[in-house]
Amino acid sequence: MKLNLDGAVAVITGAASGMGAELAVRMAAKGSRLALVDRDAAGLDGVSRRIAALHRAPLTTHVADLADRAAIAALPDAVLAAHGKVTVLVSNAGVALAGPFDDYGPDDFEWLMDINFWAGIRLTTAFLPHLKRAPAAQIAYTSSVFGIVGVPGNVAYCASKFAIRGFAEAVRQELAGTSVGITVIHPGGVNTAIARSARVARGTDAAAAAEGLVQFEKLLRTPADKAAAAILDGIERRRNRVLIGADARVLDWIQRLLPVGHAKLVARQASGMSSSLAAQLTRARP
Q1: How far is the first Cα of the chain from the last one, in angstroms, to the nearest whole number?
Q2: What 8-state DSSP symbol labels residue 201?
Q3: Catalytic residue among 157, 162, 167, 216
């Protein structure tokens, strides 16, 4: 049964740009009320103005650092005060870390996991009681194609995306028979700012890593609005999993076909995604 988004209240994190912003615009067009969450106040304001110019969807913006437990814990009260209910939670905010694992500083891994993994857990804890009150509700988590295959130069990112996928799939089983469904999103190379805004590991040369990320960014070919359309369709149809982009579908197929032997093939081919970035980051090491 499709989820009726007309009149639904959707909480979207990472809504100031990229897939989150595009998803907000598309959900507004469906008649959803929106609670947009991001640490980028100016970006949220821009998305809000864009939506207001196109639609009459009621929306609120919530400036919050998702590494802050208290900020997440305060969100449900703010959203309920403004909208009265919650129907959809999209845990979409994410960050990237460039550099080999040996170059990580003492807090690099923790910084990324706080946002890519722990924020999703804390958001679920905060909003699940309210989502259960809805006749039908959906939670969507943004994993990645790197939550299906592991690649060099992205150890922390892969760990976080495998982790959120595992959490979501297990929680889905526990919620079977309730009103709440779970969608896991696996984007391939989507054209967003995540590569440009990636943190460089403490031991990796920043200039060389930046050049590597520029080259990697050229492989991000799927437009953010196209990715958002796929995510919206997955939420509306209450699908368990959404693969975004031909690269994601190919890598998923390779991993299924060669569950052990796919690693070498992924490193060599995989649309150049892992090999190109890994080569740049290896050269970036002092």
Answers
A1: 55
A2: P
A3: 157
